[in-house]
Design brief:
Residues 12-144 form the MgtC/SapB/SrpB/YhiD N-terminal domain. The chain is of the alpha+beta class and 231 residues long. The protein contains eight helices and six strands; from the N terminus they run ααααββααβαββαβ. The chain folds into two domains: 3-145, no CATH class; 150-228, ACT domain (Alpha-Beta Plaits), CATH 3.30.70. The protein has helices spanning 3-28, 35-53, 55-58, 72-88, 101-118, 122-145, 166-175, 205-216; strands spanning 92-94, 97-99, 150-159, 179-188, 193-202, 223-228. The strands form two sheets. Strands 4-5-3-6 form a four-stranded antiparallel beta sheet, with helices on one face. Strands 1-2 form a two-stranded antiparallel ribbon.
Amino acid sequence: MSDDTTTLLLYLGAAWLAGSLIGLERSFHGRPAGFRTHALVCAASALLMLLSTHQAQWLDPSLPMSSIRADPTRMSQDIMTGIGFLGAGVIFKEGLTVHGLTTAASIWMTSVLGILYGVGFLLPAVVATAATLLTLSLFRRVETLIPTELFADHELCYPIDAVADEDQVRALIARHGCKVKTMSYRLSENGQLFHYSMVLQTHGHKNLARLAATLRQSQTIVEYRLTPSGG
């Protein structure tokens, strides 16, 4: 096996390993794009860059070297364009919550790592791989310790003859450390049910849990929905 072939296999193997490690973290947390996706993305990016930077090995040897136009930067741009469609496929919105942003970012980062490994830029590629794994694993714990502003989609449903006054609803929510940002109203069941639809703002999941516990004990509320935007 020639030294050049060994180098190519080293670059490709390193890209596959880096993508696999990042994918394992995503799979562990139950994300839709996990081990196999990240491993394939990183290896494919590396293969395309190797294809671009080693054209002399697969083009017709009778062609003069002056006819070879290697431009790895154009290949990297095309790779990132394609990865954009793949990343968009894992992002979806549910109520106020947007899911999949971190996974989409990890796919994008994995493709960049594949490009770095493919051109043999090993030191920054290894450092970036370690930084990515650190960001995905350790920073998750750091986020839980930082006070953050949370939002929740909230709906209360009352029978039409026992509707709580809006001031009472706002006071109830305020007692649980939440603030009403927006409120709308609607009727259903041929005017038999009245709904308050709100977006709540708070600074802790425990406030939402306390509010839900209070609502469960209500004798007049027909049903309620409380959907945090985090997670």
